[in-house]
Automatic annotation (TrEMBL):
Keywords: Cell membrane, Membrane, Transmembrane, Transmembrane helix. It is found in: Cell membrane. This is Na(+)/H(+) antiporter subunit C. Residues 122-140 have a biased composition (Acidic residues). Gene3D superfamilies: 1.10.287.3510. GO terms for cellular component: plasma membrane. Belongs to the CPA3 antiporters (TC 2.A.63) subunit C family. InterPro entries: CPA3_antiporter_subunitC, NUOK/Mnh_C1-like. The chain crosses the membrane at residues 6-23, 30-54, 74-95.
Amino acid sequence: MSVNLTLLIVMGVLYSVGVYLVLERSLTRVLLGVMLLTNATNLLIIHAAGLPGLAPLYSSDIDPQNYTDPLPQALVLTAIVIGLGVTAFLLGLIYRSWVLSRRDVISDDAEDRRVAKQSAYVEEEDAELPEDTSEFDDEQLEAHERENEKRHHREQDAAGDDPSGGEGRGSQSSFAGSGPAPADETGNRTDDDGEVRR
């Protein structure tokens, strides 16, 4: 594959001028820069396709290496259509900017200027935190966990979880409320639900 030096120089100039124009504040110059970048990329794709050859129409008499690769040309056609769409969009932005403000230069917002003047260091957000931010140390936390475990075991023992099969304290408490309820001063008796029986 031979290198076409003239085409490479033209591509370099188009890329450099396009990048310079895109970085300007004028929307018209941005539009021109985008168009130059699009054309430089199209030239790059065409150059990457290699030397021109025969049309890619199949014939058994022609060596396949003599054909031109059709894919780069299809990519360039697609890129041209996309470039026209981007150009139309930017033209719409430029027109709307001209209608609203009678200029196509992008100006800084007042809030942008205020933020740009601020220091990069904000003490409230960027201050370093101390390593130990807990109010308890490890020994206090372990002691607290041991107390919780002991309390849990005491509550299980008090609930009557006796492995002896229900005899003893648990069985006595189950028979304690089985008789009739005692009468109060008026002679009425109450159920477990709190209803008065006579």
